[in-house]
Amino acid sequence: MTEYGFDTLQIHAGARPDPATGARQTPIYQTTAYVFRDADHAAALFNLQEVGYIYSRLTNPTVAALQERVATLEGGAGAVCCSSGHAAQIMALFPLMMPGDNVVVSTRLYGGSITQFSQTIKRFGWSATFIDFDDTDAVKAAIDDRTKAVFCESISNPGGYLTDIPAMAAIADAAGIPLIVDNTLATPYLCKPIEMGATLVVHSMTKYLTGNGTVTGGVVVDSGNFNWSASDKFPSLSQPEPAYHGLKFHETFGNLAFTFHGIAIGLRDLGMTLNPQAAHYTMLGIETLSLRMQRHVENAVKVAAWLENDERVDYVTYAGLPSSPYAARAAALYPKGVGALFTFAVKGGYEACVKLVDTVQIFSHVANLGDTRSLIIHSASTTHRQLTPEQQDAAGAGASVVRLSIGLEDPDDLIRDLDQALSVATA
Ligand SMILES: *Cc1c(COP(=O)(O)O)cnc(C)c1O
Questions:
Q1: Ligand 1: distance of its center to the CA of 244 in Å?
Q2: Model confidence over 230-270: pLDDT tens digits?
Q3: Where are the domains of the chain?
Q4: Ligand 1 atom closest to the CA of 185, numbered from 1
Q5: How far apart are CA 347 and CA 372, in angstroms?
Q6: Ligand 1 center–CA 42 separation, angstroms
Q7: What confidence tens digit (pLDDT) does each residue in 326-375 have?
Q8: What DSSP letter does each residue of 182-197 carry, written as one string?
Q9: pLDDT band at residue 1, thresholds of 50, 70 and 90?
C-alpha cells in the first residue's frame, strides 16, 4: 500500500481487521505459542519454507503488524522489532559483524550509543572507529577491509547537528558496505534515510514513535536494496549459515534476507524481543505521528527563537534557527523541520543550570526525550557527570548547557515557564 500518503499509512499500514473476530483495532495477542496444523506444517515453519507463528520470542501477530507499519513508513522491505533502541543497534550489526570486524561511527551520537560502541561491543570482538562525519575524507579514510558498516544519526542528540545522509550513503556504497542510520530523533515523517541511500534504519521507538513515555522498544528496518552477495564481506547472509543448518539467507530470501536473519537467528538466539503490549502502545502512537511531529517542530521553533533572543542565554543549538551552521543542510534535507530537541547555554554556568532545572514547573527533569510532555535535563550534572569537562564540552554537554525536548503543550506556556525559571536561576 505504498501508493498511499504518509497520514494514511501511519494509520493503516500493517493493520487489517482481525481475521478471528473482525476487531478493527489490532488486538494485543498476549500469546506465547501457536498450534501447528500437523507435523508437516511444523517442519515447514521451522525450515522457514512457510511463514507463520511458532513462538513469540520470534514472531507475534501484534508485533508483526507494527513491523509492517514501520517498514512501510520508512520505505523498507522488512523490519524486526526488538526490546529497546539499544537492542536494535546490536540487532542491526549482528548479521554483518564477525570478531575482528569494525564499524565506522559518527562522534555525534546519543550518549548511550557512544558507550555501547566504544566499550560494550568489544566483548563481541567488534570495534568502532569514531569520526567527525562533516569530514568526508576522514570517513573514507577510516574504512578498512574489516569495516562492515557506517553508522550515524539523522538528527543527532543533543541537537543542532544534521548528518548529510546522501554523502554518507555514497561513501558506504563506494566501499561496498551498508549505511545504518539511527532515525530516532527525526522519525520517518521528517526524514526518510532509505530514500537518501541508507541500507538499514534503526529506531528507539521509546521516543517519538510511541511518543508519550509509555514504552521501551526498538526496530531495525531493512531497505532490501543491498546486495549481500556482491562480496565475501557478509558470509552470514551470503554463505551457508551454520547457525541455521547451512541455510543461505540471501539466496533463499532475496530482499528479505536481513529481516529473516534478524528473526530466525537474531531474536531466536539473542532474545531481545518486543512484547505485544508494547507493540500495541507503539502502534497507537504511530497513528498520530505526523500530527505530533508537526506540532513538536512548531513549538521547538518558537521556544528556540525566544531563547536565542533572551539576554540570559548565551547561545542556542537548534538547526531550525536561521543562525544555525546547519540551516542550509536543514533546508535541503529536512524540509519539514529538524525535530524538537536542542540545547542552550545559560549565562551563570553550572549553578544557574542546576537552579533552572529545579525551578521549571511544566518541564520535567528526566533523562528521556520525544514525549508529549516537555522535558529538561542538565547533562553535566546527570547523564554526562562521569566525563571530564573537556569530554563534556566535546559532547555538547558543557557545564552551562541545558537540553530541552519540546513537547506538545501550548508554546506560550513553555516560554513563560522558562522565563520565570531563568529569572530565578540567573538572579
Ligand atoms: C534513546 C535513544 C537510543 C536508545 O534507545 P533505548 O530505547 O533507550 O534503548 C538510541 N538512539 C537515540 C538517538 C536515542 O535517542
A1: 30
A2: 999 999 999 999 999 999 999 999 999 999 999 999 999 99
A3: 6-285, 290-425
A4: 13
A5: 28
A6: 37
A7: 999 999 999 999 999 999 999 999 999 999 999 999 999 998 999 999 99
A8: E-TTTHHHH--TTTTT
A9: low
Pick the CATH number of 290-425 from 3.90.1150.10, 3.30.230.70, 1.10.150.530, 3.90.76.10: 3.90.1150.10
In ligand 1, the atom with minimum distance to the C-alpha of 89 is: 10
CB-ligand 1 contact for 216 (6 Å cutoff) = yes
Quick check: helix, strand or coil at residue 338? Answer: coil
Instruction: Give the number of other CB atoms < 10 A from CB of residue 8.
Output: 11
CATH ID of 6-285, from 3.40.50.300, 3.30.1950.10, 3.40.640.10, 3.20.20.100: 3.40.640.10
Residue 397 has pLDDT above 90, yes or no: no
Q: Which atom of ligand 1 is nearest to the CA of 368?
A: 1
Q: Does residue 85 line the site of ligand 1, with CB under 6 A?
A: yes
Among 263, 339, 314, 236, CA closest to 58: 263
Q: Tell me, what's the pLDDT at 2? A: 56
CA of 204 to the centre of ligand 1 (A): 5
Closest atom, ligand 1, to C-alpha of 217 = 7
Instruction: Tell which residue, 362, 304, 365, has the closest CA to residue 337.
Output: 304
